[in-house]
């Protein structure tokens, strides 16, 4: 039963990771920017939600506030950090360091504002019930899985069916096509940042009500996003989502044989295995340098 | 029969659904300049990338001096005497002009180069000669990224020149040059050919092609449509039509 | 006061070695490692264990720490350098996280969370050099040696090869450079020097635990290199001085509560990294990228 319990826990974590990693992959796919400040979007969304709950506002307001903050941060990074850098140089290194710097800034601001400790938003949804002998599930599990499924369906439809969605995919595959479509790459890159950052919100809110937030969460989310991008195949949205799920499950299952402190290390063992044996990831093309 | 410096047999490459190179055979005759001509996206640069091992072919093989180079990594192929330029130059931007050329001829992957002082002086002499022939001596200490456009183009030639490689693959080395620089470039390539270097030149300017090339291979949408003497190719109305953008249906 | 200054100077020297070694990777070779504190840590634990179990000779400790850190760095370099730069970043971040867990769990090697205590006073060929001024002089000598070695290597063909790879990997390959091997060599060398810095650090602190080898430490060293200026000899040293003096300077500001100094310091160097990348990517001591 422990195994089943851990599997379900893993799926819940994995759903959160999958959404977040998909946002990262969407941004990378469309703009070729390695948006390591993605974790900062996540943290900001989570703390925005926390503030609203502490102020006694109803949860939908909190979610909207989280959404607004995350999207604003993503768009701001695109407009005020990445674009000026790409205007003069735009090497991987420069973009990476700038985004990394912003992650540190956000993390320390949160630390100044909220302290270093964990902060949890209490919720009735997290009350676990015994659904089978030895298997405890809270309603939040179904919320997490449901939200992930619905959002992936929506994002999938958006990318397949709408003009802007097709434009986003074209941007990653063949920028030349864009001109034929009459879409501006600048607007599309803003769209990618908006949408990608919005995808951190469910994960952030769910984390706030379950395991809790702490300032260092931005670095953890950044790691998960990076690892999922690599494991899934760089630039592949489907791959990143699947890899996020995989990492979440592995982190939890490992607890059945090792102590809990090894759980996040296990995720990175998966990462190394992929780098060693399948660097193209689950869905990527050959990328040997 | 002596081996050809470079020949390509049945080369194929697809990128996803796009066929970039299709069943291309190409022979470079020793000591002449062969031009690779074709409209944008014809697959010319991709052929270079396949030859130098930058990307693996889906099918086909590349022979350098008669030896197949399948599966070899780019630096091994380079050390067989294949030197190339890049359409987007790829200079070592934050290094000086001299260091750009010097770095191009130091092959040891260790903390220092073998051969001691004598070998070092020989390398320095090769660098000086290359800078001299490309007119960059006065700019030897400037940073590559700070050079003017034409100077950057000549620096990319200097790197090749210094290697002493006998097979040169030049990817649009003269595009965007002013008439004066273009004339200097033509004479540079001519003297290399006179020294017996085998050259494959990708070039859009047909005047330069007629001036330098002894043979032309004509490519469109990944396939080689024709190969032959410049006069024959450049007088073929159908090829010229394709070249200047009348698409076949 | 003198003691305080000596202390600070020794710390700055140790971090100078560490930052210079990271600069070899980031600045010259264009290899972006966020796991440098791991190799610093391996050097520190090795030096500490050697001193505790066998002999507290600094030179031996530096050698052992450097060799072990360099050897273990190959475990990261060999797989991760075969693929694109983004992978190395991801892999090094992963390694950093795993290593912290390892450091705090492998009690017999690292003493776990409690760390290794009671590191004996440093000696050199049997002579006691635990006097702060003497130890500082020794550290300065090591720093000098490291800087000299880096300067000679980077002005020679090895440096040219690394910088060529940094500026254009595909062109470097096309001109006969064995890129994976050169990069592996750079990682091995950089991490060896980090191990040397670690061994010195162990003697300086007389106690080591995992707190000094976390992601935050890796980021701090990275910030030192980047803010000071990559690919210059002086840049990392400038960065070290600025970032080590920053907490001291902040503590003079009355409106910052002492508990917040760490966060404010991070805020400042995070912001500085971002602003520098927008306005002056070469760092404070680097040449500006003026174009003609
Ligand atoms: N690495 C790659 N991945 C995907 N598609 C590629 C890649 N390299 C080239 N292509 C595609 O292959 C086709 C041929 O490209 P190639 O660069 O060889 O053309 P070219 O003849 O050199 O054109 P030009 O004269 O514009 O330089 C193009 O449609 C291009 O978009
Ligand atoms: Mg081309």
**Given this structure, which CATH class of chain A is correct?**
Mainly Alpha
In the CATH hierarchy, what is the architecture of chain A at level 2? Orthogonal Bundle
Beta-strand segment tally of chain C: 4
Span from first to last CA of chain A?
44 Å
Helix run count of chain A:
12
- The number of distinct helices of chain C, counting runs of at least 4 residues, comes to 12
Query: What ligand molecules are bound, each kind once?
Result: adenosine-5'-triphosphate, magnesium ion
Largest interface: A-C, 50 and 47 residues
**Helix fraction bin of chain C:** over 70%
Judged by helices, strands and strand pairing, the structural class of chain A is: mainly alpha
Q: What sequence of helices (H) and strands (E) makes up the elements of chain A? A: HHHHEEHHHHHHHH
Unreliable stretches of chain C: none
H/E series of chain C, N to C?
HHHHHEEEHHHHEHHH
Report the uncertain regions of chain A: none
- Give a quick account of the main beta sheet of chain A: strands, pairing sense, barrel closure: 2 strands, antiparallel
Rg of Cα set of chain C: 19 Å
Percentage beta strand of chain C: under 5%
Shape of chain A: globular
Protein model, in words:
The complex is a heterotrimer of chains A (289), B (249) and C (292). By secondary structure, chain A is mainly α. Chain A has helices spanning 2-31, 38-54, 59-88, 92-114, 139-161, 163-173, 175-181, 185-198, 200-209, 217-232, 237-253, 263-277, and strands at 128-132, 135-138. Chain A has one domain: ABC transporter involved in vitamin B12 uptake, BtuC (Orthogonal Bundle). In chain A, helix 1 packs across helix 10 (217-232), helix 3 (59-88) runs antiparallel to helix 8 (185-198) and helix 6 packs antiparallel against helix 7 (175-181). Chain A starts with a helix and ends in a 12-residue tail after the last helix. The mean pLDDT of chain A is 86. Chain B has a domain at 1-81 and 200-249: P-loop containing nucleotide triphosphate hydrolases (Rossmann fold, 3-Layer(aba) Sandwich). Chain C has one domain. Chain C is built from 12 helices and 4 strands; from the N terminus they run αααααβββααααβααα. The chains are: A mainly alpha (289), B alpha/beta (249), C mainly alpha (292). Chains A and C meet through helix 3, helix 4, helix 10 and helix 12 of A and helix 4, helix 10 and helix 12 of C. The structure holds adenosine-5'-triphosphate and magnesium ion (MG). Adenosine-5'-triphosphate is lined by residues 15, 18, 20, 38, 40-46, 87 of chain B.
